[in-house]
Write a structure and sequence with these properties.
Layout: H1 2-16, H2 19-30, H3 52-55, H4 60-92, H5 98-106, H6 113-124, H7 129-136, H8 150-174, H9 178-186, H10 191-202, H11 204-220, H12 223-229, H13 236-244, H14 250-271
Helix pairs in contact: 4-8, 4-11, 6-12, 8-11, 8-12, 9-10, 11-14, 13-14
Amino acid sequence: MTSAAGRLQKAFLFARGDPDVDDARDSSGCHRGLQLHDSRAYGGVEHPWTLENYTRLFDPLYGAIFLRTFWISGVATVLCLALGFPLALFIARSGSRKNLYLSLVILPFWTSFLIRTYAWMFLLRDTGLINTILQGLGLIHAPLPMLYNDGAVILGLVYGYLPFAVLPLYATLERLDATLLEAAADLGANPMTAMFRVTFPLSMPGIRAAAILVFIPCLGTYLTSDLLGGSKTILIGNLVQNQFTTSRDWPFGAAISVVLMIAAMGILFAARREGEELL
């Protein structure tokens, strides 16, 4: 009886156009084209269609956030490739110990990403382990500012996404025909020349796959930048989170998400060559 009365009351409020019922309908997922609507002064959604949320992205403030996100993601991707390629090559040539080394690569996934990020906060803070050891050895007299900056965010991203670079690189290098290197050696190529003239070109599909698997998640990250960067490093993910929580500007947050999704899809199509698989 009570539930029937509640449904009747809700139907009456909906017919009357009550804004609380409209908000509930919007948050339940029944609303479509959220990014093409406007927000109310105190949150929620207004229903007239508008492109204002997309034009707001041309503001220099948001442009700087987009540029910072792409720059940090690019640096983290390059570092993951630079560290992951020799590691994947070592694993591919390690013979019977391949499975052991691969298990060590994926071992961090057994622990929550949030816990691992908090561990880096413990290591990098002013009273953390690194600063404590350096001060104890007399190498520094004041704590180094290793937390709440771009460098800390890049370090956290590299640590978190390095396995995503190692695994596709290993999959490509493991299938590499060793006789090609022997032929290069017979033709007078030293190991370094064979690396850059044979191994590296043949591993390009794995390099592209590793770059995509690292770069795209870095574009949408918000946990690492929030914990390790603080208020000094705001990325696109933090901006979207802020629009849906603190600011309650859902249409603008949805517009940012759509633009980010289009950028990610563009990267995927640009990286894939005609008739070639990424792995």
